[in-house]
TrEMBL record:
Pfam families in alphabetical order: GerE, Response_reg
InterPro entries found in the cross-reference section: CheY-like_superfamily (IPR011006), NreC/VraR/RcsB-like_REC (IPR058245), Sig_transdc_resp-reg_C-effctor (IPR016032), Sig_transdc_resp-reg_receiver (IPR001789), Tscrpt_reg_LuxR_C (IPR000792), WalR-like (IPR039420)
Domain Response regulatory: 3-121
Residue(s) carrying 4-aspartylphosphate: 54
Species name: Streptomyces cinerochromogenes
Keywords: DNA-binding, Phosphoprotein, Transcription, Transcription regulation
Domain HTH luxR-type: 150-215
Domain of life: Bacteria
CDD domains: LuxR_C_like, REC_NarL-like
Protein name, per record: Response regulator
Length: 221
Protein backbone atom coordinates (compact mmCIF):
# COMPACT_ATOMS: atom_id res chain seq x y z
CA UNK A 1 0.00 0.00 0.00
CA UNK A 2 1.22 3.49 -0.86
CA UNK A 3 0.37 5.80 2.01
CA UNK A 4 -0.61 9.28 0.79
CA UNK A 5 -1.14 12.64 2.49
CA UNK A 6 -3.31 15.04 0.46
CA UNK A 7 -2.71 18.79 0.86
CA UNK A 8 -4.90 21.41 -0.88
CA UNK A 9 -6.64 24.50 0.45
CA UNK A 10 -9.65 23.99 -1.86
CA UNK A 11 -12.06 21.56 -0.25
CA UNK A 12 -13.60 20.20 -3.47
CA UNK A 13 -10.21 19.46 -5.05
CA UNK A 14 -8.94 17.86 -1.85
CA UNK A 15 -12.09 15.76 -1.48
CA UNK A 16 -11.84 14.64 -5.09
CA UNK A 17 -8.25 13.52 -4.67
CA UNK A 18 -9.04 11.68 -1.45
CA UNK A 19 -12.03 9.95 -3.05
CA UNK A 20 -10.01 8.88 -6.07
CA UNK A 21 -7.17 7.45 -3.99
CA UNK A 22 -9.52 5.71 -1.54
CA UNK A 23 -11.33 4.00 -4.42
CA UNK A 24 -8.16 2.75 -6.10
CA UNK A 25 -6.47 -0.49 -4.97
CA UNK A 26 -2.98 -0.13 -3.55
CA UNK A 27 -3.42 3.35 -2.05
CA UNK A 28 -4.26 4.52 1.45
CA UNK A 29 -4.99 8.14 2.37
CA UNK A 30 -3.45 8.68 5.79
CA UNK A 31 -4.51 12.30 6.15
CA UNK A 32 -5.65 15.48 4.45
CA UNK A 33 -4.61 19.05 5.14
CA UNK A 34 -6.03 22.40 4.07
CA UNK A 35 -2.84 24.42 4.54
CA UNK A 36 0.91 24.07 4.81
CA UNK A 37 1.07 24.31 8.59
CA UNK A 38 -1.34 21.42 8.98
CA UNK A 39 0.57 19.48 6.30
CA UNK A 40 3.83 19.75 8.27
CA UNK A 41 2.12 18.48 11.42
CA UNK A 42 0.33 15.61 9.69
CA UNK A 43 3.45 14.55 7.79
CA UNK A 44 5.28 14.13 11.09
CA UNK A 45 2.37 12.23 12.65
CA UNK A 46 1.42 9.93 9.77
CA UNK A 47 4.79 9.52 7.96
CA UNK A 48 3.29 9.11 4.47
CA UNK A 49 5.13 7.64 1.49
CA UNK A 50 3.90 10.36 -0.88
CA UNK A 51 2.49 13.84 -0.30
CA UNK A 52 0.26 15.49 -2.89
CA UNK A 53 1.15 19.12 -2.21
CA UNK A 54 -0.68 22.21 -3.43
CA UNK A 55 1.74 25.13 -3.60
CA UNK A 56 -0.45 28.21 -3.77
CA UNK A 57 -1.94 28.27 -0.27
CA UNK A 58 -2.45 31.09 2.24
CA UNK A 59 -0.11 31.21 5.21
CA UNK A 60 2.51 28.49 4.88
CA UNK A 61 2.66 27.71 1.16
CA UNK A 62 3.64 24.41 -0.40
CA UNK A 63 7.27 25.39 -0.89
CA UNK A 64 7.86 26.22 2.77
CA UNK A 65 5.85 23.18 3.83
CA UNK A 66 7.97 20.94 1.58
CA UNK A 67 11.20 22.34 3.03
CA UNK A 68 10.01 21.85 6.59
CA UNK A 69 8.65 18.35 6.00
CA UNK A 70 11.82 17.09 4.33
CA UNK A 71 14.03 18.77 6.94
CA UNK A 72 12.28 17.04 9.83
CA UNK A 73 11.85 13.66 8.14
CA UNK A 74 13.68 10.74 9.69
CA UNK A 75 14.69 7.59 7.84
CA UNK A 76 12.99 7.54 4.44
CA UNK A 77 11.63 11.02 3.68
CA UNK A 78 8.28 11.25 1.88
CA UNK A 79 8.18 11.94 -1.84
CA UNK A 80 6.51 15.28 -2.50
CA UNK A 81 4.42 15.57 -5.64
CA UNK A 82 3.47 19.18 -6.33
CA UNK A 83 0.00 20.02 -7.61
CA UNK A 84 -0.18 23.07 -9.82
CA UNK A 85 -2.49 24.77 -12.31
CA UNK A 86 0.26 25.99 -14.65
CA UNK A 87 3.33 24.03 -15.77
CA UNK A 88 5.43 27.19 -16.05
CA UNK A 89 4.90 28.51 -12.56
CA UNK A 90 7.73 30.04 -10.56
CA UNK A 91 6.30 28.29 -7.52
CA UNK A 92 7.03 24.97 -9.19
CA UNK A 93 10.69 25.95 -9.59
CA UNK A 94 10.79 26.82 -5.90
CA UNK A 95 9.21 23.52 -4.95
CA UNK A 96 11.70 21.52 -7.04
CA UNK A 97 14.53 23.47 -5.45
CA UNK A 98 13.08 22.68 -2.04
CA UNK A 99 13.23 18.96 -2.76
CA UNK A 100 9.93 18.04 -4.40
CA UNK A 101 10.21 14.96 -6.62
CA UNK A 102 8.06 16.31 -9.43
CA UNK A 103 4.86 18.05 -10.30
CA UNK A 104 1.42 17.23 -11.63
CA UNK A 105 -1.09 19.51 -13.32
CA UNK A 106 -4.40 19.70 -11.49
CA UNK A 107 -6.33 18.93 -14.66
CA UNK A 108 -4.58 15.57 -15.08
CA UNK A 109 -6.91 12.58 -15.36
CA UNK A 110 -7.39 9.93 -12.66
CA UNK A 111 -5.12 7.37 -14.35
CA UNK A 112 -2.36 9.93 -14.69
CA UNK A 113 -2.64 10.87 -11.04
CA UNK A 114 -2.46 7.28 -9.79
CA UNK A 115 0.45 6.51 -12.13
CA UNK A 116 2.23 9.65 -10.90
CA UNK A 117 1.88 8.71 -7.24
CA UNK A 118 3.15 5.21 -7.99
CA UNK A 119 6.11 6.50 -10.00
CA UNK A 120 7.16 9.02 -7.38
CA UNK A 121 6.84 6.44 -4.60
CA UNK A 122 9.21 4.21 -6.58
CA UNK A 123 11.80 6.96 -6.74
CA UNK A 124 11.27 7.90 -10.38
CA UNK A 125 10.99 11.39 -11.74
CA UNK A 126 7.36 12.01 -12.55
CA UNK A 127 7.95 14.19 -15.57
CA UNK A 128 10.25 14.10 -18.56
CA UNK A 129 13.68 15.60 -17.83
CA UNK A 130 13.01 18.16 -20.58
CA UNK A 131 10.18 19.60 -18.47
CA UNK A 132 12.54 20.10 -15.55
CA UNK A 133 15.00 21.79 -17.88
CA UNK A 134 12.30 24.11 -19.24
CA UNK A 135 11.25 25.11 -15.75
CA UNK A 136 14.80 25.73 -14.59
CA UNK A 137 15.75 27.69 -17.68
CA UNK A 138 12.66 29.85 -17.26
CA UNK A 139 13.42 30.84 -13.68
CA UNK A 140 17.07 30.16 -12.80
CA UNK A 141 18.11 33.63 -13.97
CA UNK A 142 15.53 35.24 -11.69
CA UNK A 143 17.05 33.90 -8.51
CA UNK A 144 19.19 36.36 -6.56
CA UNK A 145 22.34 34.61 -5.30
CA UNK A 146 22.33 36.73 -2.16
CA UNK A 147 18.94 35.30 -1.20
CA UNK A 148 20.15 31.73 -0.95
CA UNK A 149 22.98 29.76 0.60
CA UNK A 150 25.98 29.21 -1.67
CA UNK A 151 25.68 25.99 -3.69
CA UNK A 152 27.82 22.97 -2.78
CA UNK A 153 31.29 22.61 -4.28
CA UNK A 154 31.19 20.38 -7.36
CA UNK A 155 34.85 19.58 -6.73
CA UNK A 156 33.77 16.63 -4.59
CA UNK A 157 32.47 14.89 -7.73
CA UNK A 158 34.47 12.65 -10.04
CA UNK A 159 34.79 13.70 -13.69
CA UNK A 160 32.27 11.03 -14.72
CA UNK A 161 29.80 12.17 -12.08
CA UNK A 162 30.11 15.72 -13.42
CA UNK A 163 29.45 14.44 -16.93
CA UNK A 164 26.34 12.60 -15.81
CA UNK A 165 25.08 15.62 -13.86
CA UNK A 166 25.63 17.90 -16.84
CA UNK A 167 23.73 15.62 -19.23
CA UNK A 168 20.94 15.17 -16.69
CA UNK A 169 20.56 18.94 -16.44
CA UNK A 170 20.45 19.22 -20.22
CA UNK A 171 17.33 17.08 -20.21
CA UNK A 172 18.65 13.65 -21.19
CA UNK A 173 17.09 10.54 -19.73
CA UNK A 174 19.20 7.87 -18.03
CA UNK A 175 19.02 5.73 -21.15
CA UNK A 176 20.13 8.62 -23.38
CA UNK A 177 23.01 9.40 -21.02
CA UNK A 178 24.05 5.75 -21.07
CA UNK A 179 24.11 5.77 -24.86
CA UNK A 180 26.06 9.03 -24.96
CA UNK A 181 28.72 7.86 -22.50
CA UNK A 182 28.83 4.20 -23.62
CA UNK A 183 27.94 2.91 -20.17
CA UNK A 184 24.97 0.97 -18.80
CA UNK A 185 21.80 2.62 -17.57
CA UNK A 186 22.43 1.10 -14.13
CA UNK A 187 25.85 2.79 -14.04
CA UNK A 188 24.23 6.12 -14.87
CA UNK A 189 21.86 5.66 -11.93
CA UNK A 190 24.79 4.80 -9.67
CA UNK A 191 26.71 7.93 -10.67
CA UNK A 192 23.64 10.11 -10.19
CA UNK A 193 22.85 8.58 -6.80
CA UNK A 194 26.44 9.12 -5.64
CA UNK A 195 26.28 12.71 -6.86
CA UNK A 196 23.08 13.33 -4.93
CA UNK A 197 24.59 11.79 -1.79
CA UNK A 198 27.80 13.84 -2.02
CA UNK A 199 25.88 17.08 -2.60
CA UNK A 200 23.15 16.25 -0.05
CA UNK A 201 20.36 16.40 -2.61
CA UNK A 202 17.02 14.69 -2.25
CA UNK A 203 15.82 14.43 -5.83
CA UNK A 204 16.85 14.44 -9.48
CA UNK A 205 15.09 17.77 -9.86
CA UNK A 206 17.29 19.31 -7.16
CA UNK A 207 20.35 18.03 -9.00
CA UNK A 208 19.19 19.74 -12.19
CA UNK A 209 18.54 23.01 -10.38
CA UNK A 210 21.99 22.84 -8.75
CA UNK A 211 23.67 22.28 -12.11
CA UNK A 212 22.21 25.56 -13.35
CA UNK A 213 22.89 27.50 -10.16
CA UNK A 214 26.56 26.49 -10.10
CA UNK A 215 27.01 27.41 -13.77
CA UNK A 216 27.77 23.84 -14.80
CA UNK A 217 24.98 24.26 -17.32
CA UNK A 218 23.64 27.62 -18.47
CA UNK A 219 20.10 28.45 -19.63
CA UNK A 220 19.94 28.01 -23.38
CA UNK A 221 23.38 26.43 -23.45
Amino acid sequence: MIRVLVVDDQFLIRAGLVGLLDAAPGFEVVGEAGDGEEAVRLAAETRPDVILMDIRMPGVNGIEATERILAQAADRPPRVLVLTTFDLDEYVYGALRAGASGFLLKDSGPERLLAAVTAVDGGDALFAPSVTRRLVEAFARQQEPADTAPPPDLGVLTSREVEVLKLTARGLSNLEIADRLYISEATVKTHLNRTMTKLDLGSRAQAVVLAYETGLVTPGG
